[in-house]
Amino acid sequence: MSRVAVVGAGPAGIYAAEHLSTVHGHQVDVFDALPVPCGLVRYGVAPDHFSIRSVRDKLTETFENSLVRFRGNVHIGTDVSTEELASWYDAVIYTYGASADRALGIPGEVSPASIPATEFVKWYTGHPEAQDFGDMLRTSEQVIVIGLGNVAVDVTRLLVKSLVELRTTDMPEHVLDSFDKSVVRHVHVVGRRGPQHATFTTKELKELGELEGVDVILDPKDLPADDALASSGNKVIERNLKVMRQWSEGHNEIHGESLNSSNKKIEFHFYSTPQSFDAEQGSLTVERMQLSSDNSVIGTGTYESIPADLVIRSVGYRGLPLEGLPFNDRTNVIPSTDGKVDGVPGTYVAGWIKRGPSGIIGTNKKDAVASVESLATDLNGRQSVALDANEVDEILRARGVNYIDFEGWKRVNAAEIALGAERGRARTTIHERDRLIDIGLG
User: Fold this and answer.
1) Are the C-beta atoms of 6 and 28 separated by less than 8 Å?
2) What average pLDDT score do residues 309-313 get?
3) Tell me, what's the pLDDT at 255?
4) CA distance 185 to 10
5) What is the DSSP pairing of strand 317-318 with strand 100-101?
6) N or C: at which end does the chain have fewer Cβ atoms within 10 angstroms?
7) What is the pLDDT of residues 67-101, one digit of tens each?
8) What is the number of other CB atoms lying within 10 angstroms of the CB of residue 215?
9) Angle, CA of 423, 428 and 434, to the nearest 5°
10) How many Cα neighbours within 13 Å face the side chain of 269?
């Protein structure tokens, strides 16, 4: 029996641990810098998407297996080096994801009133390292969300959703208080391409039109004349265009009489490339784009200003390097072949740090299994030279690392459920790292 370390307790890491233990019978230690498991399922999925967030309950069942151990609050690269980890285990698989934001590279982007969606999502999901954006919501009536993906839709929806609905979620109490005091009235969704190029899922897109007291606005001229031709047979795009066409037909003019002046607004600005953000003037300048003959978008030389008290950039996630491992600065992934890290024997990758931020939660399972199979093939027939599990723990304790095990996670889980019950909710997320650690240590 071999012993394998998994770095990252998100879906990819947990799926890898499950396959390593149940299929190949290996012992697995899953490390994470956070005190709690589940990664982006806990800190990336929107709090009002209950069914997707419930996946964490299924994921954490993996730690019920006696062959799998959770070691949270352990920083690989700081508490333990990658070289040390490689010497302690028969193999190491890195699955720590892609949690940083991509930059637009425009003037004004670094303004305090211009923030990445990655950080805003961390805040409303209760990430221990999140910046508090409550003050921004109390002073921003006009908000621009840049991006045409599901994260942009999540951010947009939560900015205008009623507090009554938000209070059914597991958002931390201080976040709910901030949404209660929010003055956001108009959210502009800005993207450089057209509606047929957006990567929304239809379910999430439709949710915008179902929000109580919210009007959805888009310019009918931005919709392609022929849905079927524009979508090239892609059923998701066809469904998305159908939803957006219904919205456009509901309002004959972009600021037509059918709009309720008391309602909040979500307004789409397709074919609009951000050029600069002027926080003092409260505006984002965009260049209007148009489709070329090869279906790419090109600038028209026409510029518009969109009012903005706050800009939230949702243009993608990117991975970060880890000392001791190779890293591709262009693709922001750890370079690998069949899951094996290039040039580093016994080291593997899975998930977003392997392939980039793409796919859904289930995509990570297939990806993790493929990497594990490469790992298992390499270990087949080899005698284990790994440290004993207790030896690893003794080293961590000697270094003053307050690691959280699975029993500690269960204490945190119970505490969040109890806190939620006090407020008439199923759960309230605890966001303070020290508090999570204290509860986890018992």
Assistant:
1) yes
2) 98
3) 40
4) 35
5) antiparallel
6) C
7) 999 999 999 999 999 999 999 999 999 999 988 88
8) 23
9) 125
10) 26
Distance, in Å, from the CA atom of 370 to the CA atom of 373, rounded to the nearest integer, reads 5
Residue with tokens 């609009």: 272
Tokens of 151: 């994260």
Q: How far apart are CA 16 and CA 122, in angstroms?
A: 24
Q: Are 182 and 138 spatial neighbours (Cβ–Cβ below 8 Å)?
A: yes
Residue 130: name the closest of 10, 34, 31 by CA.
34
Residue 93 DSSP label: E
CA dist 103 and 274 (Å) reads 12
| Beta bridge mates, 266 | 187, 216
Q: Which two tokens stand for residue 412?
A: 């945190």
Which residue type is seen at 248?
A: S
pTM of the entire structure? 0.93
Cβ density class 97-107: b for 16+ within 10 Å, e for less: bbbebbebebe
Residue 229 has pLDDT above 90, yes or no: no
Which single residue is written with the structure tokens 């109890």? Answer: 418
Cα atoms found within 13 Å of the Cα of residue 273, Cβ hemisphere only = 16
Instruction: Tell me what pLDDT residue 232 has.
Output: 61
Contacts of 432 (CB under 8 A, 6+ apart): 128
Alpha-carbon distance 59 to 37, whole Å? 9
Place of tokens 């839709």: 153
CA distance 387 to 67: 15
Phi/psi of residue 282, each to 5°?
A: 70, 50
Residue 373 scores a pLDDT above 70: yes
The structure tokens 């998930």 sit at 351
Length of the chain: 442
d(CA 86, CA 151): 35
pLDDT of residue 231: 56
What's the pLDDT tens digit per position in 246-287? 898 865 444 444 556 679 999 999 999 999 999 999 999 999
Three-state DSSP class for 216?
A: strand
- Set out the domains of the chain in order of their start, with CATH numbers: 3-99+319-403 (3.40.50.720), 102-313 (3.50.50.60)
Q: Output the 3-class SS for 232-277.
A: CCCHHHHHHHHHHHHHHHHCCCCCCCCCCCCCEEEEEECCEEEEEE
